[in-house]
Specification:
Number of strands of chain A: 22
Oligomer: heterodimer
Strand order of the largest sheet of chain B: 6-7-8-3-9-10
Largest sheet of chain A: 10 strands, mixed
Radius of gyration of chain B: 17 Å
Largest sheet of chain B: 6 strands, mixed
Order of helices and strands of chain B: EEEHEEHEHHHEHEHEE
Largest interface: A-B, 33 and 35 residues
Strand content of chain A: 15-25%
């Protein structure tokens, strides 16, 4: 079969074989790395420094966008190790041995190993201690320091020396799990670095496109004399590589200095490896290839004549077709407006190219608010879970809240509305984000995507004393008035309701049904519809006394109420199934272990209660000491800083082509002040579309990301497990608008000022000065 | 003449483009065969389509239909990349407006084709010296185009077209912007180097005096190419 690359050369058919294709590809790569390309690249960028100055600046920023997250990742990794070592001096903790179990395990494991198996010993040391459980029984606890941090090593130890017993509980310490955490951190950072790489490619692509657009004539000449895609691609890529090599060391030094300052102020670790440098080369290589390929590929498909002609035509502001309309129009206003129209594609491209970076900057604010929330939100250090129908006794909660170092306890005493066939009635204005899930009834819109929660005196005391919830309104009325409730407005991390303190709500309490309800349908709205049509309900009128934000990212919103009202609307007994214990900030890991031990003793007489050490203090400390928010803000600022160079680079290139036009206009009577006004008018006029584009792009892109994270990812079950709020940053928007406007005016006026200076210099030279 | 090898062949070449609402036929079914070592001049009034035809023959522009063969190779069927390499190796172009890159010196402008075709320095050094001596621009090599006269700029443009020793040279009104004395001098240089290097020269001009120096004259009239006949014929 004929290949599209088969051809006749000097009347002979030359077949294009796969072998030839491989040879061509290898040749392409080999020629790419030829020293001549390197030499040419260096010579080109150092010789034409002014022409490439914007690329030097951009490349510095691009490399910083690699080094900042890379060093932040290494700092996080170093901090994780440091904190994990501080949190535990053992790898494995086994608790709950009875006296007999302990004796057997001790003999089989440690005595035998230390006596006969010393060569294959898997641990460095071990220690054991005793404690009394609630019923006064002596229990043993073992802590083993392994001779490797690898989790698989610890697991192997447990396989070799298996442990069994009625109350045995095994816990891997942070010293064992930190390597997994390191892998997790790398798995988070690497995509971030890749995304920043793509962004960097976009930056360089935009700049290189502007360069190609303005040097069409030059490229047309190159192509007339033999330049093909390969030549143009090699030249373009090596020009950027050469710039990257020149800016490599400065970018690394700046990034390291900034990292040292950040780490010193936060108290975290610093990490830097030789592999980072190798990664940086690979990253840069890919970023540059990706940036250069599309523009050069497109360029190479154009005919040299079209490029040369395009270069020539762009010297003229108005085409002959437009020019005749200039009669009886004012100069410079109308004249320049025609120019705008004539070059509308150029201006549209310029606006989008320059302003897209403002929207990325605003996205930086959004991502920063999200990361700040994830780093600063306090999650419970210890969690109690009850599997028994009795739940967690309120006495226990009261007792544990008195332990020194416990800040407050939040426990869940709630039930889903769907579990008791309940619903509530919203009015149209209240159901903002949940409208599609509600069912229209005679008295409003029914919804059951919520849960009823009970607030008793102890929980109320905890919440109000330590500020675990954000409260708007008066929560005390919920305790004192039986028709008052508190509501949360969130599902996952999205505000779905629009309540006001003082709003009235109707709660529907299920009584009976005459027709059977089909619960097997997965459509909750359909079930609700059946209930409304077929069941009998009792209605309870309530008033919203407080709107609260519990910090939870649950898939239901909350209707919280007093014991009395709860018992009135929930026709079954509900007990607390979970209690989250928060400790004081800045507590040492040893003190936290002591609190854990105390709670462990306290619950041992209760059946079915599980105790979980979340070690969120460790997570919090790591995040605090190696926070990535400064890096995010810096990267956002860097991206914004690309915007003015795009304006100046593009407009100075464009302006330089108007030199002839300036001379022509001067020759026909235009004064300097008129020409100056022409450029000022042009710049000021550009601020209008620039402002509109900044607002639209800034708002649009951030809204897109917000929707992607809060709705799309959440719908896939990947929502954030912490609450973060985001409001469009108007300060950021004003900064962007001001920067765009200033860039538009100055970058448009500058070529005129430069032309005037050059003209005066030539005139002086001609006068012999 | 018929015994000589055909180096350039145009078959039914048509070039049309849209200008606002009307379609302009710049080249209308042009057919021609040009032989190795021949000098052919195309004459015609402004806007007759002769430069467009020359650009198509030189592979700088694409026809709407028809084919161009150079040394038996159909350049209209070549990809942009293949054509670029082919142009660099076998063709040289002298533009009417010189098309020198304003930021480059005369020498840099002349050497562009060697750089584009990755020619090693030793392969063109001697030829370069000879060219600049013949074209009498050896003392202007480090000047920017803006510092050269029109005639000097055209000589630089010719040197650039000839540096890779192309087999076919295309010249688009090479003397269009020059006075009589300069025009004659540039033409002499072109013919001299053609003879020395055994090249084929296709020249577009509206100057009958220049055209008469060619082996053959073709006329382009409203896009139609035909052999030149003197009025007496």
């Amino acid at each position: 079969m004929a290949h599209r690359k088969d051809k006749y050369v000097d009347h002979e058919l030359v077949r294009y074989t796969p072998r030839q294709a491989i040879k061509d590809a290898v040749g392409f790569v080999v020629r790419f790395f030829s020293p001549a390309n390197f030499k040419h690249g260096i010579r080109s960028v150092t010789g034409g420094f002014r022409e490439f100055s914007v690329f030097f600046f951009a490349m510095l920023l691009v490399q910083l966008m690699f080094w900042f997250p890379m060093l932040a990742m290494e700092a996080r990794v170093a901090t994780i190790k440091k904190e994990a070592y501080a949190a535990a001096d053992y790898h494995l903790k086994i608790e709950g041995f009875s006296s007999d179990e302990w004796t057997a395990y001790f003999n089989e494991t440690f005595i035998i190993t230390d006596t006969y198996d010393i060569e294959d010993r898997m641990y460095e040391s071990y220690e054991y201690s005793t404690y009394q459980n609630g019923s006064g029984r002596l229990m043993y606890e073992l802590k083993v320091l392994m001779n490797s941090d690898d989790e698989s090593h610890t697991r192997l130890f447990l396989l070799k020396y298996p442990v069994s017993g009625e109350n045995i509980k095994i816990e891997y310490s942070p010293r064992t799990s930190y390597l997994a955490e390191v892998s997790r951190i790398r798995a988070i950072f690497i995509p971030i670095i890749i995304v920043l790489g793509l962004l960097s490619s976009v930056i360089l692509l935009i700049l290189y496109n502007i360069r190609i657009n303005h040097y069409k004539f030059r490229y047309g000449v190159y192509m007339s004399f033999g330049a093909d895609f390969e030549k143009l691609f090699h030249t373009a890529a090596w020009e950027l590589f050469s710039i990257a090599m020149i800016t490599f060391v400065p970018s690394l030094i700046i990034a390291l200095l900034v990292r040292i300052i950040i780490s010193a102020s936060l108290g975290g670790g610093i990490g830097f490896g030789i592999f980072s440098i190798l990664w940086s080369f690979l990253w840069l290589f890919l970023v540059i290839l990706l940036a250069v390929f599309p523009s050069v590929k497109f360029l190479s498909t154009r005919t040299p004549t079209s490029l040369i002609v395009a270069g020539d035509n762009s010297n003229y502001v108005s085409s002959p077709k437009t020019s005749f309309r200039i009669f009886r129009k004012s100069f410079p206003k109308h004249y320049e407006l025609f120019g705008f129209w004539r070059f509308r594609r150029y201006y549209a491209t310029l606006l989008v190219s320059a302003i897209i970076f403002s929207s990325f900057f605003l996205c930086g604010f959004f991502i920063n608010s999200m990361v700040t929330a994830s780093e600063t939100t306090r999650l419970p250090d210890i969690t109690l879970r009850s599997n028994s129908p009795d739940g967690i006794d309120v006495m226990l909660v009261e007792e544990f809240s008195e332990i020194k170092g416990v800040k407050y306890i939040n426990w869940e005493n709630s039930i889903d509305a769907t579990a008791i066939n309940a619903y509530l009635v919203l009015d149209r204005s209240q159901r903002s984000g949940i409208a599609s899930k509600t069912v229209k009834t005679d008295i409003g819109f029914a919804d059951n995507n919520y849960k009823y929660s009970r607030i008793d005196e102890t929980l109320y005391d905890q919440i109000t004393r330590e500020g675990g919830w954000k409260i708007e309104g008066d929560l005390s009325r919920v305790m004192s008035e039986d028709n008052c409730i508190a509501v949360s407005e969130y599902i996952n991390n999205s505000k779905v309701l629009n309540f006001k303190v003082g709003d009235k709500l109707t709660l529907a309490v299920f009584e009976s049904t005459e027709k059977p309800i089909d619960y097997d349908v997965p459509d909750n709205k359909y079930i609700l519809n059946q209930l409304i049509n077929n069941a009998k309900f009792r209605f309870v009128e309530v008033e919203i006394a407080a709107i609260v934000d519990t910090g939870d990212t649950d898939d239901r919103y909350m209707i919280a109420m007093s014991d009395a009202l709860f018992n009135n609307v929930v026709p079954k007994e509900v007990n607390a199934s979970k209690a989250d214990i928060y400790v004081s900030e800045g507590m040492s890991y040893k003190d936290l272990d002591l609190i854990y031990d105390t709670i462990r003793s306290g619950i041992s007489t209760f059946d079915g209660i599980q105790l979980i050490n979340n070690r969120n203090s460790l997570r919090y400390n790591i995040a605090e000491k190696s926070s990535i928010t400064p890096v995010i803000l810096l990267c956002a600022v860097f991206v914004l800083l690309v915007s003015p160079p795009v304006w100046f680079f593009s407009q100075s290139m464009f302006g330089s082509k108007r030199k002839t036009e300036n001379y022509m206009l001067s020759a026909f009577g235009a004064t300097d002040s008129e020409l100056g006004r022409l450029y000022l008018f042009s710049g000021c006029s550009l601020t209008i579309p620039a402002t509109v584009a900044t607002v639209l792009l800034g708002w649009g892109v951030t809204e897109l990301i917000y929707t992607f994270i809060n709705q799309f990812l959440t719908s896939l079950g990947m929502g954030a497990d912490f609450r973060y709020s985001y409001e469009f940053s108007f300060v950021g928007l004003i900064i962007c608008v001001m920067l765009s406007s200033a860039s538009a005016i100055i970058s448009t006026y500058m070529p005129f000022a430069r032309w005037k200076k050059e003209r005066d210099r030539i005139a002086r030279r001609h006068l012999g000065e | 003449m018929e015994d000589r090898k055909v180096i350039l062949k145009a078959e039914n070449v048509i070039k049309q483009y849209k200008q606002y609402d009307t379609t302009v036929t710049a080249v209308n079914r042009a057919n021609v065969e040009i032989y190795d070592g021949e000098m052919v001049a195309i004459i015609g009034s402004s806007g007759s389509g002769k430069s467009t035809f020359l650009h198509i023959c030189a592979g700088l522009d694409r026809p709407n239909s028809g084919r161009i063969f150079i040394r038996g190779n159909d350049i209209t069927a070549m990809s942009s990349d293949e054509l670029g390499v082919f142009r660099g190796n076998y063709m040289g172009m002298v533009f009417q407006n010189h098309n020198l890159i304003p930021q480059f010196t005369a020498m840099e402008n002349i050497l562009i084709p060697t750089l584009m075709c990755n020619k090693p320095d030793h392969s063109y050094e001697e030829h370069f010296k000879k060219l600049v001596a013949t074209l009498n621009i050896h003392d202007r090599l480090h000047h920017l185009p803006s510092e050269l006269s029109g005639g000097q700029q055209q000589r630089v443009s010719i040197a650039r077209a000839l540096i890779n020793r192309p087999q076919v040279v295309f010249a688009d009104e090479p003397t269009g912007n020059l006075d009589r004395a300069n025009a004659d001098e540039v033409l002499e240089l072109l013919i001299k180097t053609k003879e020395e290097l055994g090249q084929t020269l296709l020249i577009v001009t509206h100057d009958m005096k220049i055209a008469e120096r060619a082996d053959r004259i073709l006329v382009m009239d409203n896009g139609v190419l035909s052999p030149y006949r003197k009025k007496s014929e």
